[in-house]
Amino acid sequence: MKQRGRSLVPLGPLEAELLSVLWGTKEKMTIRQVYEIMRLRHPFEAGDTPPAYTTCATVLGNLQKKDYVVRKQVDKTFYFMSSRTQREVLVAALGIVRHGLAAENTKLWKECLKEVS
What is the CA radius of gyration of the chain? Predict the structure, then answer.
């Protein structure tokens, strides 16, 4: 599905989580701020390790390449903000699901729609 002249690609779980953190504020955020909020939202149990800070930094960079976030540099610090609204991302995700399932099996698609309605 095209939004703002570019196709949105599906998000992975960590991408979606980090984007959700950015949607929670209108302010630009550093990688560290996004990382810390993500960790506070989802406390990890003993033996369960959260994603590394460097992994979150890489994922935010990937989100920029996918056109979900914008990155601004001030001195040596990078700041991130969402470039897509939650609505835009949800509409794109639903479109991907709808077109994929409908193309594969219209009957299955209709049955699934009934279950979620």
Answer: 17
